[in-house]
Amino acid sequence: MLLLAFLLLLAFLLLPDSTSWALDVDFEGRLKMGRNLVDSPPSHKNFDSELELRLGVLGGLIEKDGWVLDYELSADAKQADGPSVQSGLRSGTDVDFFRAWLRLDNEKFKIRGGRQKIIFGSATIFRPLGFFDTRNVAGVVLETRGVDGVRATHFLSATSLVEGWLLPAKKGNAWIFGMRGEMLVGGVETGAVFQYHPKSDLDDLPGFNHEMVQVGYHLKGEKRFGFWHESRLDIATKPSKPIQFDTVFGADYTFAIGEGLHVLAEYFLTTRQKNFGSDDVDPADAGKRRTFQQIGITLDQPVGIDIQWQLFGFYDLRDKSFRLVPQIEYALTDALFLYLHGQVGGSLKSGKKDGRLFHKTDRFNGTESSLGLTLVNYF
């Protein structure tokens, strides 16, 4: 909230006395209800359910001489029950802000403070540069929750920008800060990023409890088919400075089958030197270099104007485990959507039933097979 007050003060300092107030208020919201039948472990419930109500307002506050001060404020209330709550993967009740920001913008330069989405990079399924990405890529509605911070963006041209951000780590007086640049090079979208990441209490973000310097880049273009590449190097601040490296290569193409069959595939590799993030390593892997490779595939196709089917597939090249996530979307109206979705997993390794993408334990872990219905109404 202090960030929002700071932006309001900044607006008053930058804009003259003849500033025109143009208070616009648009209301929006969403109601989401879902229920899954789950192949749960013993002593766990068989149905996982959720109910979510999101309400928000957005609009403009001030306009003058090309400057605009606008805002978004939305909050959601969630109620969940079932094995995911029993196992502690999510809370039964949660009420929090989803977005809460003010933005000062003149098209060439903008600064936004408060709870906001900070997402960039070129990858779709696996996102090495998704420093603040909390979405479930195989979920019914893809979205990432906001983080609290300040972000400033300067557009150097129609195809280039520089951007910086500053976020409280919520652990002592530490701050997360980073910068990135993006431009077109020979028709290919090219970007580079740097971030200093101290230990934080932002426990829903990857690597939150490690201090490190992170650098990365991404490329994205189209030559009859779309292609992209994205990589990140993490350098821990420990005396030996162990590293972690993530990289992804992806491509997609729409085939002239039916009303268009869209196929997307990504190859992802992550490798860590020993002692990098040793506090979150399986004891069996302690002191060892760990390298994992995965392939992710999505297929989606519209059927008429009301139906679209989609299939996510994930395969681990090391332990040969896989997970399939099919989904059918049916538009009941322009604002009301019904989703039939499921999940099934296994392993192609002979005599092995468990792996990184699918495993059975005495405690619910989220990889169990399931079948469910979800209703989403936007208003």
Note the main attributes of this structure.
379 residues; mainly beta; 18-stranded antiparallel barrel; 2 helices; globular
Architecture overview:
By secondary structure, the protein is mainly β. It has two helices and 19 strands. It has helices at 2-14, 83-86; strands spanning 20-21, 26-38, 47-64, 67-81, 93-105, 109-116, 147-157, 160-168, 175-185, 188-197, 212-222, 226-236, 243-255, 261-272, 290-303, 307-316, 321-331, 336-347, 370-378. It has an 18-stranded antiparallel barrel. Strand 2 (26-38) and strand 3 form a beta hairpin. The two termini are 27 Å apart.
What structural class is derived from the secondary structure elements?
mainly beta
Q: Regions with pLDDT < 50 over 5+ consecutive residues?
A: 279-287
**Tally of extended strands?**
19
Measured by DSSP, the beta-strand proportion falls in over 45%
What is the tally of helical segments?
A: 2
Q: What is the molecular shape?
A: globular
Helix content class: under 10%
Kindly report how far apart the N and C termini lie: 27 Å
